[in-house]
Amino acid sequence: xxxxxxxxxxxxxxxxxxxxxxxxxxxxxxxxxxxxxxxxxxxxxxxxxxxxxxxxxxxxxxxxxxxxxxxxxxxxxxxxxxxxxxxxxxxxxxxxxxxxxxxxxxxxxxxxxxxxxxxxxxxxxxxxxxxxxxxxxxxxxxxxxxxxxxxxxxxxxxxxxxxxxxxxxxxxxxxxxxxxxxxxxxxxxxxxxxxxxxxxxxxxxxxxxxxxxxxxxxxxxxxxxxxxxxxxxxxxxxxxxxxxxxxxxxxxxxxxxxxxxxxxxxxxxxxxxxxxxxxxxxxxxxxxxxxxxxxxxxxxxxxxxxxxxxxxxxx
Length: 315
Hints:
Largest sheet: 10 strands, mixed
Helix content: 10-25%
Distance between the termini: 35 Å
Shape: globular
Oligomer: single chain
Radius of gyration: 18 Å
């Protein structure tokens, strides 16, 4: 394993050409927006494994829809209300003459997914068009940071017994290269489950004990449910894989599904009906690569991003 890891070189995510990342947030309301802008468009696939995703234009990433380049992926808070942030992203892109040419206007193609963070701060303030636009302006600097920023501002994990025993989470990203192939993961971790380091088994965040001094076990709490319980869909881990590898939209959907293995390695329980787990995968380059290698690498990079999301969080 050590020799294999020597093949993988960590790189700054800003080293990936054609990708710019921006954040905007309201620290009082505890919500925000993270935007991934693709300067020359991207072939985007998707994998949805949770039971309650809040999304916008996600069908653009399905293999059987038109193969048009996606201009941006938005990851936000605000639950379904937060989908309004996509309007601001579209306005920014239109102002910069970016979008699909219809003959009458350029229509920006923007995919978006949201987490439920209405219980973290003020539930009556959510990401809107102005915040989406601000995230795009921030992407001009392309100086993203992990933690309680952007769409991860109000993220929490370990919520099976309520917010009072949850742990703070946030936005995480990680990027690597193997030779000329580059791979990055951006993720907002807002899971019902606990977060562990898959290499050591160490619990990093999650359900806390009643006295708040340590961690309890979300799976054990779940197993104790003696009858059917309606777990409110207030948890979602949403993310994106970005690579300079040359792949089709269908192949990117496969890479997204392989990246989902990182969720299983780091989050427990995961993919429940109380989660809206979604992963986009975007190809923005021409580097030839094997899809099996790329999907395996995507899962490893996503796992690192998940751990960074909770380790860098504050609150």
